[in-house]
Protein 1
Amino acid sequence: MIKLVNVNMNFRGKQTLRDINLTVKQGEIMVIIGPSGSGKSTLLRLIIGLLKPTSGEVWVSDREITRMTEDELNKVRLEMGMVFQYSALFDSMSVGENVAFGLRQHTDMPEEEILRTVRRKLRMVGLRGQENAMPNELSGGMKKRVSLARAIAINPHLVLYDEPTAGLDPIMSNTIDRLIVSTRRMIDATSVVVTHDMSSAFRIADRIAMIYDGSIIEIGTPDTIKQSENPIVAKFIRGASALPESKGRAKI
Ligand SMILES: Nc1ncnc2c1ncn2[C@@H]1O[C@H](COP(=O)(O)OP(=O)(O)OP(=O)(O)O)[C@@H](O)[C@H]1O
């Protein structure tokens, strides 16, 4: 479970997030949408504890993380898997070593079990037997899948996805979407997905939150969002380019 309570985030006096109240329930897939510059990545970074809010509280699995020390935060982060926008694999390591990385760094798991876990996670993302491949031999979609296998290797309670389908063709996007949904099912993880891809958002979300100018302006099931009477939401889901200017803050 994740809970943000009255969160404000200012960068050099400029308010980037304002009065965010958001609860993501255990096992829920929450998709965050919004124009470029609206504050989506900032929200993810607050949940991982890479940023501390200017005011407000961030709760992760019943713990308030904003006042934690770096050591305490690192323990909480062990329960989180992160799939980055550009996969962020270690290029000098094989696929298997990438997936095993968190297990070798942070657990006492015997090597044999690590190898078994790596095999199982690669199978889950449709990359059976690819342990010895190097990242530069893989397509963008395969790299994303390795990144997902690495994120779920530690059986996280929480998986965060930053633009998981960016730069992928529709078929691969669909594959990644199905993996996000099956990952939630298999490890019962709470998931937060930041995306610009509206068809993906509608396919995978239990609920969608739209951020605009640092505020959540709409939140609800995909159907609620589709039927929103808020003109900014309606325009955004038809195509971000049709959005009105917003006080010059968002770089639409
Ligand atoms: N560390 C920082 N220092 C100063 N300003 C920042 C910092 N991080 C983000 N910002 C500003 O906060 C605003 C929101 O940025 P953020 O990256 O959260 O938006 P986003 O919705 O994720 O955008 P995109 O979709 O383009 O990734 C932007 O105006 C950005 O310039």
Protein 2
Amino acid sequence: MSGRTTGLTPPEDSKAPVRHPDAPAPGETLGAHYDQCFGCGHQPGGLGLTTRAGEGVSVTAEFTVRTGHQGAPGLAHGGVLAAALDETLGSLNWLQRVIAVTGRLETDFVRPVPVGAELHLEARVDAVHGRKIYCSATGRIDAPDGPVAVRAQALFIEVRVDHFIENGRTEEIDAALADPDQVRVARAFEVNP
Ligand SMILES: CCCCCCCCCCCC(=O)SCCNC(=O)CCNC(=O)[C@H](O)C(C)(C)COP(=O)(O)OP(=O)(O)OC[C@H]1O[C@@H](n2cnc3c(N)ncnc32)[C@H](O)[C@@H]1OP(=O)(O)O
């Protein structure tokens, strides 16, 4: 162990999250932040998650569990469900115009999710403490008020855009930066426009 705290409870002197004035309006679809993203991109094996801005610093998202998402026969793989939660939580950063990556993701698997089910996700930022963004998410089966299947609490850590440029593979970084659609470039790295 590194000795760092693994607590997901925001410190007492945390601040409330701030929605960026230019954040998409509630109900607006966020679209894919990066076409090659496993969560929200347009890849045959991906989740194809569709995310919409909610009120405050919150989002909703849906994805349909397909045959390629199975763990046990006929049931979604837990890692796929965790990825859906991670992606939904990650999209909260666009509403704050902050660049952040998942530091910790804790997931409760409450009930199995069958193939063919539509998972309805809801995520919000609960508090911010310096670079640390505390957030939580819930996934329900087949309807926004359906039975809870998964819950997550997460800690995202704010980073500089250099995090991706220094750590990502040059091929994909260069291609993303060369995109003439500057909003898409900004979103690929969740950069302040
Ligand atoms: C690819 C995306 C594309 C584009 C962006 C959008 C993509 C959305 C996709 C979904 C999101 C993802 O999957 S993102 C991909 C998955 N995640 C990653 O690849 C991140 C890999 N990890 C790292 O790069 C690093 O560990 C960081 C950046 C998270 C932290 O490193 P650092 O910048 O050096 O900061 P460090 O000093 O260690 O930590 C800062 C503070 O946070 C705390 N802290 C750090 N990690 C933890 C932790 N696990 N649990 C508790 N606390 C922690 C420290 O104690 C410290 O608290 P204190 O001392 O200040 O109190």
Protein 3
Amino acid sequence: MKVAPSILSADFSRLGEEINAIENGGADWLHLDVMDGNFVPNLTFGPPVIKCLRPNTSLFFDVHLMISTPETLLQDFLDVGADLITIHYEATQKIDEIIEIIKKSGKKIGISIKPNTPIGTIKNLLDKIDLILVMSVEPGWGGQKFMPEMLEKVKKLKAWRDNNPENYHYLIEIDGGINNENILEVKKAGVDVVVAGSYIFKRSNYKAAISSLHQ
Ligand SMILES: O=C(CO)[C@H](O)[C@H](O)COP(=O)(O)O
């Protein structure tokens, strides 16, 4: 299982150093939470910040767009070095167009769903995408409590993929409230990539925190 620290909980005044520290601490991916103050009430950063971070690390950039109508800024995120772009099913009417653009660019495409969106809603998209991100908190803030009932979605996604390996190759990612107490349950449900923000960045030893999630 891969560990993708979310920089939402990092010290933004020292972002470059924070990223080097999690890279040296064994992070597999870097999870970048982009929020627009519209799709979610919070605001974070956009393409200019990601552009500055790109030369600073060789980590895989897992960009999670919590923004309305992501199609408007898609090319900017592709241009600044995103490796994978995850958009929200609830944020756009142009999912098929977005999938097409990202695939043509040679980058990976992910779809995310909020806790109240049933997993069946995106079943028709699963054969076209590289990753599905199951939100285990309401998107918008770090440090919230994990919603264990979201693991039912993970179990369904794993069963669908296991039963149809010719058509489904998506990775299953989970985001929100992950820590050393729920990681085993998360792993058993079938998650491939785990996002963790406050559990890692609120500790003094990032390496120990990341390896506790790897085990
Ligand atoms: O997408 C997010 C919030 O919208 C964050 O990535 C997520 O909540 C991670 O933070 P934490 O591990 O502290 O819950």
Protein 4
Amino acid sequence: MEQTLLEVSHLNKIYKRKGGPDFSAVKDVSFTLAQGETLGIVGESGSGKTTVAKMVAGMLPATSGSLVLNGQAMESRRSKDMKRNIQYIFQDPVSSLNPRLKIKDILAEPLKLYFNLRGEALNSRINELLDDVGIPQSYRDRYPKELSGGQCQRIGIARALAAEPSIMVCDEPTSALDMTIQSQILELLQELQRSRGFSYIFIAHGLEVIYTISNRVLVMKQGEVVETGATAQVFHSPEHPYTQTLIQSIPKIELPYFEY
Ligand SMILES: Nc1ncnc2c1ncn2[C@@H]1O[C@H](COP(=O)(O)OP(=O)(O)OP(=O)(O)O)[C@@H](O)[C@H]1O
């Protein structure tokens, strides 16, 4: 059994809405994430996937519940090292990069913040990161708008890698990209996982993506976890009627090896 890296217990999120009733977006969500594992989160739009992901990444405060990383409780004000350790890959690669910064400066930010790199050490680390994600070093001086969507997502991945995290939270990282680019980005993420051993929390609308890359799956509906288990088990013998409906909606043509 792999070592547990993250323990999420009884997580809740209530959004306060001005002039309307409060909205309970995440209800009593618990799960664990092991080192080197990919946990896929699936569920219809509005089921609370992004809210869970943002609470895990410390981008949104939880209303209640606990998050324990490497045996240490993560308080609402996280230490710099805890922030470094969980990085987020965004759905929209272009808008997630500061348009006023050159690629080298986007990558320099986490390197300066977390590792205090300067000068030549900083420069060569930026080049290494560009190599790691398959972007030519000559792109250092370009701005995000001079890159394609897929290239921007590679920079988003390099920026996350720069922090040397143990967990990457990927919130639909390929859904804004063309099909061929999607599979290239997925391959890159898988290759990086193999070489660095980090863990992913992976949200995707396309269930075939989740099927391909996840070890375990969490199925969410209206803020709750309705089913969780090993990917093959959940996809081949779903127990909850909601999961059964989700799985049946996958076009057979895309998963010819699928048994219903
Ligand atoms: N800041 C907010 N204030 C109020 N309600 C919100 C806020 N953010 C999200 N919600 C609501 O919380 C619910 C869960 O949203 P969330 O974005 O987590 O769902 P999701 O499963 O990620 O959806 P999608 O697949 O469309 O991205 C939705 O009903 C959404 O409208």
